[in-house]
Amino acid sequence: MRAVSKSSINSTEDENWARLAGFGLGIGSLYVQEALTYPICIIRRQCQVNHAALKYHLTPFTIFQLIIKIQKTQGMGALWKGWGTSFVFQGIVILTEIGISEVMNVPRDLTSEEKVGIQAILGNQILKCLGLVLTLPFYSASLVDSIQSFQLGENRSLLDFLKDVLYRLAGRYKARGHGRLLPMYQLIAPTLLHSMLRYAMTSLIQNAIIKRSSVKVQNKKPKGDIAVEAGKTYYTQLLAGFLSSLVVDLLLYPLETIVLRLHVQGTRTIIDDTDNGYGVVPLCTNYNGMKDCAQAICREEGASALFKGLGALVVQFVIQACVLKLTKAIFKRLPQSSEGPLAKK
């Protein structure tokens, strides 16, 4: 009895360690992906909002040249602008959604393992919509921080970020003068459309991949090492998230371009010249809404302008794929690591 009890304890410790290691590795992988792809995201956004650009950067080859030129001209910090306020915005979104979830008593996230009804799904969608609307001014201010050129010599702080949020709520940008700033209510519809489409499509694809993978695992049996099973579970979730984002971001890229341009219009933002890699370009547009923006882009820049900076998105997913492959290699070593601590005991 004593030997069986000790074996049971060791098995539980193995399982707990494996799950903790897998979860930690999964979170670490996501963080590394975010850190490595953030500079690429900055370049992509600048390309998308640059209405005067002659180079569209539709392939990844020209993106590397642009990054090198910007880095040489402004330093590495230029590729990390808005990093701090981006985390502040994400934190505000999480806290807002948690608060709404507690008040409305609806789930903040729906996992593929849960059997949920229509009421839970609708409640989750309403929660996401409310959260987005309430945090919309923070998103606009964070976006401006991420594309504002460093060549102006302005050192923006968290206080400047909060001021921009207030200016956006007030319907004007005193810090940058008066421009064709769209009121918040005109930004709600296009932003909601893009965000909810992305959320719904990503969830469907991700859950479909996870369910298909779980069926394959059940059919294969027999069960292997606990760490191997935990590693496969977490890796499958990472892979599903990667593939779903890849498909959805490509499909919704034109809509994202329109949304970004509407948010920065009238903010008097100065971005880097994405044609030459040095110099600056002012954003001076006069769109009346989502439909007018799409028509103006196609008329003045061509339909392919809706995909400006697409090459950066390709680079972004190539980096994520490399990190994912490295994560898979580390997951394969989990069995050896899990046996180590217990073997010594």
Question: What is the topological layout?
Answer:
Layout: H1 2-49, H2 60-74, H3 83-104, H4 118-134, H5 136-147, H6 158-170, H7 184-220, H8 226-251, H9 253-264, E1 270-272, E2 280-282, H10 290-300, H11 310-332, H12 334-344
Antiparallel strand pairs: 1-2
Helix pairs in contact: 1-8, 1-11, 1-12, 2-11, 3-4, 3-5, 4-7, 5-6, 7-8, 7-9, 8-11
General description of the model:
The longest helix has 48 residues, at 2-49. It is globular, with a radius of gyration of 23 Å. Residues 174-178 and 336-345 have low confidence and may be disordered. It is mainly alpha-helical. The protein has a two-stranded antiparallel sheet. Helices cover 72% and strands 2% of the residues. It has a single domain, classed as Mitochondrial carrier fold, CATH 1.50.40. α1 packs antiparallel against α12 (334-344), α2 (60-74) crosses α11 (310-332) and α5 crosses α6 (158-170). It has helices at 2-49, 60-74, 83-104, 118-134, 136-147, 158-170, 184-220, 226-251, 253-264, 290-300, 310-332, 334-344; strands spanning 270-272, 280-282. A hairpin with a 7-residue loop joins β1 (270-272) and β2. The protein starts with a helix and ends with a helix.
Which regions are unreliable across 5 or more consecutive residues at pLDDT < 50? 174-178, 336-345
**Continuous helix count:** 12
> In CATH, what is the class?
Mainly Alpha
**CATH fold-level name:** Mitochondrial carrier fold
Largest sheet: 2 strands, antiparallel
- In the CATH hierarchy, what is the architecture at level 2? Alpha/alpha barrel
Task: Label the overall shape.
Answer: globular
Helicity, as a percent range: over 70%
SSE series: HHHHHHHHHEEHHH
Terminal Cα separation, in Å?
A: 19 Å
Give the total of beta strands: 2
Give the rounded overall mean pLDDT: 81
